[in-house]
Amino acid sequence: MAGTAVTVHTRPGDNLAIHRAFDFCRPGDVLVIDGGGELTQALMGEIMATYAESLGVQGLVIDGAIRDVGALSAHDFPVYARGATHRGPYKNGPGEVNVPVTVGGMVVHPGDIIVGDADGVLAISPDDVMTVIEGAKRQADKEAAALRSIAEGHFDRDWIEAQEKKMMAV
């Protein structure tokens, strides 16, 4: 998943602001929702996720609960959530759209680049995108070299003893 953040801050368990946020979503966006990490009330389920997908949203990142997990997993649409519950949301507000939010301890600003895979989600400031891409390429090259050395039978583990000695001296 990759796209531009549209952010929502909502009262835990309440999705009125999320419904309003759909008006701000454009194809290529990722909807990032700060629901305070609350897990007792779902912020959305299959219907809202399907609607987001119909708008061209690339995925959902929800610091809160969802429902309809079985139905959502049958879709080819990324939904990252803190948890799941059978209890549906309130629709009372308040909430804010396109303000800085916090999701899992990560601050996300409107317009940040959101990238997600099976390991999790990352928010990148547009100003930092090239630096992050270059760092990711260096890390991928390093990991590919390590995997090659394992396959060839000469994986370097000499550093372990030196590191242990260094740590014992501290």
Automatic annotation (TrEMBL):
Residues noted as binding substrate in the record, renumbered to the chain: 45-48, 67
Cofactor: Mg(2+); a divalent metal cation
Residues the entry annotates as binding Mg(2+): 68
Swiss-Prot/TrEMBL GO biological process terms: methylation
Pfam families assigned: RraA-like (PF03737)
UniProt keyword list: Magnesium, Metal-binding, Methyltransferase, Transferase
CDD domains linked to this entry: RraA_family
GO molecular function: metal ion binding; methyltransferase activity
SUPFAM superfamilies: RraA-like
InterPro entries assigned: RraA/RraA-like (IPR005493), RraA/RraA-like_sf (IPR036704)
PANTHER family according to UniProt: 4-HYDROXY-4-METHYL-2-OXOGLUTARATE ALDOLASE 3-RELATED (PTHR33254:SF4)
Descriptive protein name: Putative 4-hydroxy-4-methyl-2-oxoglutarate aldolase
